[in-house]
Amino acid sequence: MKGIGTNDRDLIRIIVSRCEIDLHLIKREFYDLAGDSLEAWIKDDTSGDYRELLLSLVRTNL
């Protein structure tokens, strides 16, 4: 995913709106398509408090 850049608006919308519904399916599909976990991609492509917020949402098991 390096070089593509992060579309922050889409990333936030998808993670926040789907974290309680089907984020586990999105994470699995992301891995199948990207060959890496969504969590690893977030760690690599974001920073600071923004990174920690997204990782907290992605790691939530609701």
Question: How do you describe this structure in short?
Answer:
With 62 residues, the protein is mainly α.
What does the model show?
By secondary structure, the chain is mostly helical. The chain has a single domain (8-59), classed as Annexin (Annexin V, domain 1, Orthogonal Bundle). It is built from four helices and no strands. The longest helix is centred in the middle third of the chain and has 12 residues, at 23-34. The termini are far apart. It holds the Pfam family Annexin. Belongs to the annexin family. This is Annexin.
Oligomer: single chain
Query: Architecture, according to CATH?
Result: Orthogonal Bundle
Question: What best-fitting shape do the alpha-carbon axes yield?
Answer: globular
In total, the number of strands is: 0
- The number of helices is 4
Share of β-strand residues = under 5%
CATH class: Mainly Alpha
Instruction: Please identify the structural class as seen in this structure.
Output: mainly alpha
Series of secondary-structure elements, N-terminal to C-terminal: HHHH
Query: What percentage of residues falls in helices of 4 or more residues?
Result: 55-70%
Distance between the termini: 27 Å
Residue stretches low in confidence (pLDDT < 50, at least 5 long) are none
Radius of gyration: 11 Å
